[in-house]
Amino acid sequence: MAPTGSQHAQESASVAPSVTSMEDLAVGTIKGESVAHHLFKFPKEREILVPFFTNFDVTWATRHQVKNTAFSAYFLAPEQTIKDQFGIDTEVLLIVSDFTDLQPRAMQAIDVFLKTAPALGRVDQTTIFLVSPDPKLREWIASYVALNPQFRVTVAISQGEIHAAKGDPWFIRSTISEQLFSRDLFNDQLPLKTDTFFFGRDRIAAEFTASIKLSQNRGLFGLRKTGKTSLLFKVRR
User: Fold this and answer.
1) Taking the alpha carbons of 36, 39, 45, 47 in that order, is the dihedral positive or negative?
2) What is the pLDDT along the chain (237 residues), one digit of tens a residue?
3) Are 61 and 75 in contact (CB under 8 A)?
4) What is the reported pTM?
5) Which tens digits make up the pLDDT trace of 159-199?
6) 204 Cβ neighbours under 8 A, 6+ residues apart
7) How many CA atoms within 13 Å lie on the side-chain side of 176?
8) Which of 206, 230, 227, 226 has the alpha carbon at shortest distance from 218?
9) What residues have CB less than 8 Å from 232, skipping those under 6 apart?
10) CA–centroid distance for 110 within its chain
11) CA angle 69, 74, 76 (to 5 degrees)
């Protein structure tokens, strides 16, 4: 006997709903009034944030503009899975650009933004996310890093990629894995001229700085490529 209309409706209602969007899978949340206020002004950016919700909380947001360069900046707090898999323990900066044709001045503006409050001392200084409408964003970033090898690791994601990956809960994690580990940070042949990748020798640098202030002589010896010049650049900074 064929089911009646009411029986069919009851059976359909008992079936668990399928996942229809990334927000159904989200574990991250929006935290803080600054994010809600920012999204009220730029509602289209919520679609960009949705895939990040599977692995991050969004904790802070603002619009930053310097001369002809403007972008939205978000702070993302990683969930435990991201901390365990990639060693990202602090908040990470997400930049959302409206420009389809990025210019070096945009990267310079991002660098300045990271070196000022509230980013300085709060977010990871070595890694950022960058989202842009540019379909060739990854190629552009690769070319920029080739010319500026000491620029921080930039996980580049085009808006087209985000749209195409809609509903894929692994998209952000796969993208991080693909781009974060594709660059060997220890294969830098030049001395480090900024603090971005300078680690572990702050005590020695402080001792040299103190000696210079006291007009005391001090020597620095070591094998080639062990960081002597990088340390001296740090002392000068």
Assistant:
1) positive
2) 444 544 444 443 333 333 344 444 445 788 888 999 999 999 999 999 999 999 999 999 999 998 789 999 999 999 999 998 888 899 999 999 999 989 999 999 999 999 999 999 999 998 999 999 999 999 999 999 888 887 889 999 999 999 999 989 999 999 999 998 744 445 555 565 565 555 566 777 777 677 777 777 777 776 665 666 666 666 666
3) yes
4) 0.70
5) 999 999 998 999 999 999 999 874 444 555 556 556 555 55
6) 231
7) 22
8) 206
9) 208, 220
10) 11
11) 145
Per-residue tokens: 75? 């702070």
Could you check whether the bond before residue 17 is cis, i.e. omega within 30 degrees of 0? no
Residue of 171, 111, 103 lying closest to 132 (CA atoms): 103
